Amino acid sequence: MGSFLDEAKAAQDEKREKDPADMSGSKDPWATNDGAGEGGGDVSDSASGNAGDPADENEETKPKPPRKKAGPTRTPALRRGRPKGPERRPLSTRILPELDRTLTKAVEVTGKNPQTLVEEALASYFRRLKIEDPGESAEEADVA
Residue 73: inside a domain, yes or no? Predict the structure, then answer.
């Protein structure tokens, strides 16, 4: 028969509920009952689970059929995220401080971003001067 302290500790352990966060003495959470994992025999612990498959040895002898290219009937995949806006060219310019303050005030009043406001102002100015877009052919001639 054990001492009083041993009996009290045993009684306390019986009454105490098991802590769900206590992992001591529990089985391996990754082990399965299908034989793979610890003590699974001659099967290795590879990620694919078929490292010991004899079919892998015959891969070199069997030629794989060539992949077919996507035909014109395939629809393009849908894009995720923000929709792509119009193509823009980078432009760096300096403006006077009073124009910067005015542009900032216009952004606050209209709720539009500075890029949109400047593009609309330039388009309006070019319409007033009756200057039309020469098209992409003029831009290619300027570059060449």
Answer: no
